[in-house]
Write a structure and sequence with these properties.
The protein is α/β, with parallel strands linked by helices. It contains seven helices and five strands, in the order E-H-E-H-H-E-H-E-H-H-E-H. It has a five-stranded parallel sheet, with helices on both faces.
C-alpha cells in the first residue's frame, strides 16, 4: 500500500484521542507526501489553556486554523497530510477557503475506546476531561464535504490502510 501519491492535502480530523498524530504520518507515508502535526501550529497560549483543562474558544482556534491553512495552501498541487481536530463545519470551511481542494479523513470511534487510548498517552497537553467538550463540539462531515470517515478500531497500520482505501473511493476533482 505504499506510495499511492496524491496531489491533494488530506486533513486527518477527529476528537482528541482518535489517533490523528499516529495515523497522520502513516497515511502520509502511504500517500508519498509530507506530514505536518497540527498541534505544532497552536500558539503557546492555546497550549497553556488546553493544558490547564480550559476548552479553546473559536477566537482561540482561528489563528491556529489559519496557520494550518497556510501550510496546506503551500502544499496545494503537491499533496500533504496534516492533523487538525477540525471539529466544526466552520473550521473545515476556513481550511477549505485557505486551501481549496483539501479532503478530510475523519477518525471516528467509540467514546470508551478513545478515552482508554487518551488515558495512556504520555506528554500530551489535552486532558481526558476535555473529551466531553470535543464530542459536544463535533459536527460530522456533511454529505457535500470532500472526505471520508474511518473507524479507529484496530492497529494503526490497518486504520491507515482503510483510510487510503476510503480516499481511493472518493471522486476527487
Amino acid at each position: 500500500m505504499r506510495h499511492q501519491h496524491t496531489t491533494h492535502v488530506v486533513v486527518v480530523m477527529g476528537v482528541a484521542g482518535t489517533g490523528k498524530t499516529t495515523i497522520g504520518p502513516l497515511l502520509a507515508d502511504r500517500l508519498g507526501v509530507p506530514y505536518a502535526e497540527g498541534d505544532d501550529f497552536h500558539p503557546a497560549e492555546n497550549v497553556r489553556k488546553m493544558s490547564s483543562g480550559t476548552p479553546l474558544t473559536d477566537d482561540d482556534r482561528w489563528p491556529w486554523l489559519d496557520a494550518i491553512g497556510t501550510w496546506a495552501h503551500g502544499r496545494a498541487g503537491r499533496g500533504g497530510v496534516v492533523s487538525s481536530s477540525a471539529l466544526k463545519r466552520s473550521y473545515r470551511d476556513r481550511l477549505r477557503a485557505a486551501a481549496p481542494g483539501v479532503v478530510f479523513v475523519h477518525l471516528t470511534g467509540e467514546r470508551a475506546l478513545i478515552e482508554e487510548r487518551m488515558s495512556h498517552r504520555q506528554g500530551h497537553f489535552m486532558p481526558t476531561a476535555l473529551l466531553d467538550s470535543q464530542f459536544a463540539t463535533l459536527q460530522e462531515l456533511g454529505a457535500d464535504e470532500a472526505g471520508v470517515s474511518v473507524d479507529v478500531s484496530g492497529a494503526p497500520e490497518e486504520i491507515a490502510d482503510r483510510a487510503v482505501e476510503a480516499l481511493r473511493g472518493l471522486e476527487l476533482h
